[in-house]
Amino acid sequence: MFDGKSKVRSEVIAVATKEALQRRGVELLDIAKIVYEMQAPYNEELQLEQCEDSVVNVLKKRELQHAILVGIELDELCEQGKLSTPLQEIVESDEGLFGVDETIALGAVFTYGSIAVTTFGHLDKNKVGIINDLDTKKGNKVHTFLDDLVASVASCAAARIAHRSRDLEEAGLTFDDVKDAAK
Questions:
Q1: Number of separate domains in the chain
Q2: What is the pLDDT of residues 54-83, one digit of tens each?
Q3: Structural domain boundaries, residue 59
Q4: DSSP string, 22-43
């Protein structure tokens, strides 16, 4: 039991977040593919590896970690029938007017500015990549929160790349230059 005197260490939260995503069938590469799709039209040198690196880096943010842990926990509790009525039925059916799932995910997006917010809106509406798989009910899994959280991570990672691209451009560099320097 947590004693309330010490703080939960960052590494513990980071590991728990990655494990929760994997437990729910979401790999970082799945998210990186969405990031690539969002950013490749604006950056022809962009590689999938750089998108995956961006996903890894945004997952270091506490706002995203906390949102993911809370959302996944709620999805899992719903699968177990442990939410009270009528919340159980609302989450289980992913009721259109619920909106709390988007609100939690959107709150985490604000860390990366307006480009992340608009990308999140696009991903929430168009259900790109694994977001569509999570949104489409298969079996007894509930992903009411997870689909939006994946959109949140992808939006933040895409925004991070957009901002980084601009910084590189202003320095007269490209992602190819950074990639070559890392070797």
A1: 1
A2: 999 999 999 999 999 999 999 999 999 999
A3: 26-182
A4: HHTT--HHHHHHHHHHHHGGG-
